Each structure stands twice: as structure tokens, then as C-alpha cells.
Amino acid sequence: MKQCRIIVLATAFLALTTCLAFAEPTVIQYDCIPNYANWGAVTKAYQKKTGVMVPPDMKGSSASMAALEAEGKSPKADCAYYSGAIGFQAASKGLHEPYKPKGWEKIPAGLKDPNGTWWTVHTGHVAILVNTSALKGKPVPRSFNDLLKPIYKGMIVYDDPRIHGTGFTFVSGINAVLGGGQDLKAGFDYLKKLDNNILKYAKENSYNELLRGEVPIWINADGNGLKAKYVDKAPIEIVIPAEGTVTMPLVMGLVKGAPHKEAAKRYLDWLLSNEAQHLMAESFFQPVMPVKLDSSLQAKFPPKSAYAKAKVLPLDKLAAQADGIKKRWEKEIEGGQ
Amino acid sequence: MRTLDATIATPPIAQADRRRQLAPLLLSAPLLVLLLALLVWPLAHLLRQSLLLTGAPAAGLTLHNYFEIATVPRYRHALTWSLELSLAVAAGSTLICLAPAWLFTRYQFPGKRLMRGILILPMTFAGMIVGFLMIILLGRTGFIPQLLERLTGKPFLSGVGYQFPGLILAYLYFEIPRATLTLESALRKLDSRLEQAGRSLGANRWQVFYLVVLPVIRPALISTFAVTFSVSLGSFGVLLVLSIRRFTLLPLEIFTQYIAPPTDQGLAAAMSFTLLAVAFATGYGLRQVARRMEGGNA
């Protein structure tokens, strides 16, 4: 009899919890990597505030776009986060639905689509992230040119641009930073020379490997380096290269045919609020909205002067060239031809 | 011998027998339906996709995607590298595992179960986890290079994990359990009286192994080779983590073609079909060889 009751209770409990698990409202965001741009804390804060869960998603920008393309008319995601050019490309492929979240008008022109198929949530810059203790006495590189020195052989990593948006921004932007022309020759010549010092073109996120010193030099977003330095207290130096750098808008869009559209809209509104923008800034991406940061937080960002030579790449042109640049990189750099 | 069996085994089948054969057929019907749904249908879809141009499906059926695999150096290399790696890993793991499989079936010793458990453990790991283990062991700041640096002053083997030897090691590591288990079950069936007879006829240990044991277990060795070969052929999680430079494998190319824009699903499907055909042909061919050997031994 007693056993019977236990079984009944257990079944009831199970049924209740499964009901709750399914009833829990969710918004699915493709490319929601907890270690990137503080998405972990941002989504946790949103769940605490509204009860809506936004689960992590480890796809990079390009993989997110590919997934939305493959899913076609029945997408699994409500919104997606991308590195700028990839988001622009996804929007021009018609994967997004126009939406202007609350506060939209305050986003600077050029960092949003006038129709609302994409908009910037924060910006980052390509930087050289250096684990100084892993350098073992070698000087900290100060410029993109320094990275070509043979002393850094086997120490440099950047992300596979076919998979990750940050890697793509670097590969496509380095030409402009070095003053190259339309043919991107200067950029690809540089990447070919840099290839001699590369440890690997990472297909996985290398953040933890940078902290451990397994990867001593990672060409990635400045925000990730600042987080490694101030939040994870690793011996990381964030170098804004002497030649200048590339500004990367990180953008979002509402997916066409989103399964939880209304909930997604409320979430996207909130992401432009003071609270969310401040949380994102805590992972050291520059907020796109005019929010005033705590002075202690503001002080951790590199001085404005370091970014004087930063270039904003025209997203439309970049998006049009994206496929070609990736194919060329695959052949000339990764394939070594 | 076999012809004799055949003549004995074909008496006229009675009606009752035929009815008795119907029952197993009916009972396996759900499995057949499942196979149809989960294997035949997706395969047919894959085959069709591989014969269409991704950009222009209306252009009709074409072998263009297969042609591309054969002619574009990157894809051709991916195929040959996949074959070479799988052959090496299959041969290596079969040979390496013969000793432990022998040990586990023939000897009792303290700690045997623990040792066997540890050896079988990697079977549960995904390829990516094995990749991470390799970085921890043989990465730039891996355990082994750091140990060697402490001992000799120089970080020998540093970063080997990101090179070809690291990949081979990782593949061997996750094929070892499969090879050991397959070989073990074959060795267990081996009649130890055969060896005793050989010994009593004056053969030494090596002669017994070479002349008595090896011919009997050869089919098992071949099927172990076939299993490890086809598993290696299809896996790429290790390479995804190690990102070995100037190197790729066909399954990784499929993954890239499918998830990294500009994607080409037709090409990815053609690559999948090529991989499948190779795996199936090797598996089937080797099984035929093994069966013939077993027949010859009987």
C-alpha cells in the first residue's frame, strides 16, 4: 500500500515537473554563447525579471545563418545575434522580419537598417588579446606588423572565418586597416605571412584556452579580452593595434516566422534598455544606446584615443563580398595554395 | 564440404514449415517498416539532393557534384586523407588491441576488471572530448610538454596535439575499446585445446600462435578492422577541436559545406553518399572475405 502511494506521488511529481518545464516560456536566440558579450548574465537577468528563458546556443554567426536557411519556413529560432556583415547578409536573404524595438530611433544611422530587418545591439573592435604570462618574456606585440615576427611562431590563433563572425571581420577588414585597395591583395598578402605564425584557425571558441595560456595570442574582439582581464582575472593585455582596427557592429534581427514572436519582441525591446545595455557593457562591448556607464566600468575600457584609427566597414559591400572572401581564404590561406 | 551441406539442406519444404516461416517475417515487419522510414527514405532523399545543383535544382539530375569531388583538389584530398587515416587507424587499433584482448580472455589477475573498465571507457566519449583531452595532454602547454620541460629544460612535443601524430593518437584512443571488445568476443570462442594439441605436437609458443591461433582468429581480426575503419571514416569531432592545418577530412568538409555559408547542400549530399558508399563497400567486402575464410577453415 505504502509503495503504491510512493509510486503515485512520484508519478504526480514527474507529471507536474514536465508540465512546468514545457510551460516555461522561452525565446530561442541563435548565437547566444554565454561567454561572449555577457549573454550568460544578460539572459539570466531576463529570466529573473520576466521568467522567460533564453537558452544558450553555441552556434557562431555564420552557422546561425546557415541553420535559419536550412530550416526554411519553420525556423526553430525567434531571433539571432550576428557579427555585422553576416547579420546584414541574413537580412538580405529574407530570413528576418522587420521590427523596430523600443529605443530604435536612438541607434546611430549606419548601425541599423532603416526598415528594421537588423540593428546593432553593441559594437566591438578587433584587437590582439595577449596572455602575457604565456609569452615567457617575449615582448607584447603592439601592431599587426609585430605579429609577423618569427618569435611568435605557433602562438597566434584567429577564428575560422567560414564559421565565426569575428574571424570573418578580421579577415575582411585587415585589408582596409593596412590601406589596401579593392582587390583585397594587401589583406591577403598579410594573412599569408601571418599564416607562418598561426597555431590553428579555431573552429571552437578559444576563450578558455586564452585564459589558460594554451593560446597565447588570440585575434578577437576587445570585449572578450577585457572580460578575461577584469572578470576572469587572467594576465591578459588588450592591444589595439598601432595600424588601427576594425569596428564590428554586433547586430540582431527578428526571425521570419518566429515560433514565439510576441515574446521575442518583448525580449528584443528589453535588450536595448538601460539594464541590458549596461550588462552587455560589463562584458566590455560598447553599448549602442547612449547609456551612462558607472565610472569604474568606464575606466576599464581602453581610452577613446586608442580607437581613433578604427574603421567602420560598409556592411552592404562586405555582405556582398562575404562568400567570395571566405572561399578565397579557404583556398589561399587555410589550403595554403 | 560446402557442396555436401547444400545437398543435404534442401529437402522439399512442407506446407507447415512454410507457415512457420511466416511468423518471424510478420514479427520483423515493424523493424522493416522502421528501416524503411529511417534508412531508405532519408537515403533516397540524400541521393536525389546529391544529383541536383544547389543553386539551380530545376536544371535536372546531374553528376556535377560528384565530378567536383573528383576534380577539386581540396575535396579529392579530403577523400584520400580520410581513407588513409581510417586505414592506418583500423590497422593500428586492431594490432594494438590483440594483446589486451588476449590478456582479458586468457588470464585472471587482480585489477583485471578495473583495467578493462579503463580501456573501454573512451567508447563513451564524443570525438570532441577526445580532442580536448589531446590538447590537455599534447597541446602547446600540454601535460607532457610541461613535464618534459621540467625534466630536460625544453618543452619537447609541445603542440604535437595540433599536428598529424596528435590526430592519429586521438583516433587510436577512441577506437581501442571497440577493437578490444570485438576481438575479445572472438577470442573467447577460441578452443584452447587446439593450442594444447599444437604444443603437445612440439610447436613452440610462436608457432602455435602463427599456425594455430592466427588462422582461426583471422576472420575476427578482419571484422575488427572493418568496424574500426568505418567508425573512423565517419568521425570528425577530434579534428573540429584540433583544427589541424593544411589538412581536412571528408566528414569535416560535409560539415563545413552544410553549416558554413556559402553552403552547398548538393555537394554535401554527394560527399555523404561517397563516404557511405566507401564505408559500405569496405564493410561488405571485408565481411565476404571473413566469411570465405571461416568457410575454408571449417
Written overview of the protein:
The complex is a heterodimer of chains A (337) and B (298). By secondary structure, chain A is α/β, with parallel strands linked by helices. Chain A is 40% helix and 16% strand. In chain A, α4 (84-92) crosses α12 and α5 packs across α6. The N and C termini of chain A lie far apart (76 Å). With 298 residues, chain B is mostly helical. In chain B, α3 (29-50) packs across α14. Chain A binds chain B through residues 62-63, 65-67, 69-70, 86, 89, 134, 154-155, 160, 162-163, 198-204, 209, 212-216, 322-323, 326-327, 330-331, 334-337, and chain B through 73-74, 128, 135, 139-141, 159, 162, 240-246, 256, 258-263, 265.
Compile the SSE list and pairings:
The complex is a heterodimer of chains A (337) and B (298).
Chain A: H1 2-23, E1 29-30, H2 39-50, H3 61-71, E2 79-83, H4 84-92, E3 96-97, E4 119-131, E5 156-159, H5 165-177, H6 185-194, E6 198-202, H7 207-212, E7 217-221, H8 222-230, E8 236-239, E9 246-255, H9 261-271, H10 274-281, E10 286-287, H11 295-298, E11 311-312, H12 315-334
Parallel strand pairs in A: 1-2, 5-6, 5-7, 9-11
Antiparallel strand pairs in A: 2-9, 3-9, 4-7, 4-8, 4-9, 4-10
Chain B: H1 2-8, H2 15-27, H3 29-50, H4 64-71, H5 73-106, H6 112-120, H7 127-138, H8 143-152, H9 164-188, H10 192-200, H11 205-234, H12 237-242, H13 250-259, H14 265-297
At a glance:
With 337 residues, chain A is an alpha/beta fold.
What key attributes describe this structure?
heterodimer; A: eleven-stranded mixed β-sheet; B: 298 residues; mainly alpha; MetI-like fold; 14 helices
